[in-house]
Amino acid sequence: MIDQSNDNVRCQTVIVDCHLHVGTREQWIPEGLALAADVADPETLEVLERNGSAGPSMLDYLRAQEVDVAVAIPCGRESVQEYTLDEAERSGGRLLPFVQYDPRAEPTACRRFADAIDRGARGLKVHPCSTQLPANDRSLYPLYAVAEERRIPVTIHVGSSVFPGAKLRYCDPLLVDEVACDFPDLTLICAHAGRGFWTDQVFNLTRMRPTVWMELSGLPAKRVPQYFPELDRVADRVLFGSDWPSSPPISRLAKEFRALPYPSSMIEDILWRNAARLFSLPTA
After folding, report:
1. pTM for the whole structure
2. Tens digits of residue pLDDT in 75-125
3. What is d(CA 276, CA 3) in angstroms, rounded to the nearest whole number?
4. Which residue intervals of the chain are DSSP H helices?
């Protein structure tokens, strides 16, 4: 079980959501809110209507969904996105904040990232298709060096996107492979596991590179065995994620994943144990 000493949470079913977006309505890109309005459940829409995915209503929603811990991903397009740190500080340990930078527009990105880690940042997010900054761009390398030195992971969007202006060629997993070669001690998480074009490539990259992980957000659970027929070969580096709020309820996604024809130990590894190991979460 995840042991959250701040509020003594104990859950019969454990969920660590490794891809959840947070931020006030003003911080969200309009297309993200529009997509959530089309696909989200009424409870999610109520959270977004209040103040976006921020503050007490966000935490109340996570408790109702039986989510023990969630990785908090930024939801905007600014060159510096660190507001996840504020949300995490108010979450009592329930949110693990990732931050995001565009080093082309922010010359102090490296220093800011180091400072953010000191404040509690647990990872870096890179979103190549929206920033049109490929994962192997050398302007990102100083940020990767900081993450490698501080031993925190980097999540890279590797998969399709329906948002206007998204250029999918920047999401090719081979670009992540180059980073894995150049930073052999850096943990790299392929968000969305290559949905759309690259599921095979992401699986094989994860199988061949011991520092590469797959994260399943945005993929219907029932299709996971179809996309990854040998998922058991990399099951120790697969993470559950929702891509909330552009998703069904998180508890429903977890329930559907638990219904898949995998050994129960493998299911629990993906739903929470792998994340607990990756982020050094206390367990009981």
Report:
1. 0.93
2. 988 999 999 999 999 999 999 999 999 999 999 999 999 999 999 999 999
3. 10
4. 30-39, 42-51, 56-64, 83-89, 109-119, 128-131, 141-150, 173-182, 199-208, 224-227, 250-258, 264-268, 274-278
Is the bond preceding 134 in cis, omega lying within 30 degrees of 0?
no
C-beta atoms surrounding 254 within 10 Å: 24
Cα–Cα distance for residue pair 48/54, rounded to 1 Å: 8
Alpha-carbon distance values, 206 to 119, 155, 180, 200 (Å): 30, 13, 10, 10
Tell me the CA distances in angstroms from 6 to 46, 57, 90, 262, 281, one per residue in order.
26, 18, 11, 33, 13
Cβ neighbors of 34 (< 8 A, separation 6 or more) are none
SS3 126: strand
Tell me, rounded to whole angstroms, the distance of Cα 197 from its chain centroid: 19
If 0-12 CB within 10 Å is exposed, 13-18 middle and 19+ buried, where does residue 3 land? middle
